[in-house]
Amino acid sequence: MKRLLYLMMAIFAFYACDPINDMDSIEVLTEPKQEPVRLTVSPTSISVSATYQVVTATISSNGNWTATCPSWCQLSAYSGTGNYSLRITVGQNTVEQKREGVIKIYYDNKTASITITQQAKAPSQRDPSGGDNTPPSW
């Protein structure tokens, strides 16, 4: 048993002194540092009138992003890479109730949001008596 131990120590000493196995010659490879995920939007809130409108928001990103929006909006792009000037088309609001939705931009594990509010259509002029709003003929 002692002979086996001495033999193993001799082999270890032999390889430890071998210049090919010298620890100074080992090259350690590391992955390049990645820039942290960056995703912001500006503005984060938009308010528009009831009429058809096109507004702009800025996406600042250092990677690939995707976007979603309410059904009453359209975006100039639903995906992209890096910074982008996003055009948001808002259809006319034809009801007498304001509507609000959220445009969401996704990149990796981050989400940026733009809240969009559209004013209600102006109330119709109606005769309180239920008539057709025709002026009376005197």
What does this structure look like?
By secondary structure, the chain is mostly beta strands. Helices cover 11% and strands 38% of the residues. It contains one helix and nine strands. The strands form two sheets. It has a five-stranded mixed beta sheet with strand order 2-9-8-4-6, with no helix packed on it. A hairpin with a 2-residue loop joins β8 and β9. The longest helix is centred in the N-terminal third of the chain and has 15 residues, at 2-16. The protein starts with a helix and ends in a 20-residue tail after the last strand.
Indicate the structural class: mainly beta
Put simply, the count of helices is 1
**How many β-strands, per DSSP?**
9
Unreliable spans: none
Distance between the termini: 128 Å
Largest sheet properties: 5 strands, mixed
Order of helices and strands: HEEEEEEEEE
- Assembly state: single chain
The whole-number mean of residue pLDDT values reads: 84
Instruction: Kindly provide the radius of gyration, computed on alpha-carbon positions and rounded to a whole number of angstroms.
Output: 34 Å
SS strand fraction: 35-45%
The strand line-up of the biggest sheet is: 2-9-8-4-6
User: How would the global form be characterised?
Assistant: rod-shaped
Indicate the topology.
Blueprint: H1 2-16, E1 39-42, E2 45-48, E3 53-61, E4 64-68, E5 73-75, E6 79-81, E7 84-90, E8 99-107, E9 110-118
Summarize this, please?
By secondary structure, the chain is mostly beta strands. Helices cover about 10% and strands about 40% of the residues.
